[in-house]
Amino acid sequence: MRRCVVNVSTGVDYRALQGRLSQQxxxxxxxxxxxxxxxLPKSWPKHENIPYAFKAHALKEASFNVDLIAWMDxxxxxxxxxxxxxxxxxxxxxFIPANPPDMNYTWTAESAYDDLFPDMPTEEAKxxxxxxxxxxxxxxxxxxLSEIGRTIFFEFCRLADTRAFIGPWANSDGPDKDRYTVDxxxxxxxxxxxxxxxxxxxxxxxxxxxxxxxxxxxxxxTEMYAHPEGHPEPGEKVILxxxx
Length: 244
Fold this sequence. Notes:
- By secondary structure, the protein is of the alpha/beta class.
- It has a single domain, classed as Spore Coat Polysaccharide Biosynthesis Protein SpsA, Chain A (Alpha-Beta Complex).
- 33% of the residues lie in helices and 17% in strands.
- Strand 1 (3-9), helix 1 and strand 2 (32-37) form a beta-alpha-beta unit.
């Protein structure tokens, strides 16, 4: 099967991490690479207008004549052969990692509900969102030859053009509001009111992907991907490590 890893990196720090990712993929990836740096195509929405929509646009451009496709953030560090990763995507049709402990409600802006949960009253959607596990979108993959893989792919790309991807990183009325009183943190996290006091902010593509996974009844990975915050250090089964 034809495999491809997709990445977009903006800014000096992320471009350096993209170089690391590219090198590790040469060692361990067993795949093609489609990597973008600035300037990004003018037809793509700007990151400040629709955060992380570039992921969907890059995936669409890279998807032609590809069977298995995966997004990887610049901070992803492949530690060993990705064959088990590709095997899982081919066998199960997808790979989406868990991101405990929060539920998706904690990272969903009020303005995103109409697009994430169409035809469902907002309060009912909020109650459901409180039991939807929050996934990570640092790395995820799809088998485009399968119905499940194509559904994830097309729904992710569709939601990227809606308000599901729009909202402040941090809720200025939320539980972390005292962390964002310093000016540079305000700028970094683009704080604004975005929900009740128990909502921490919005995670755009990650929030949307969590709803997609739930609607399809997908099981989130807890073995192959690790993050230094909230996940164990890389163990024997970890293949992909989030490391700045």
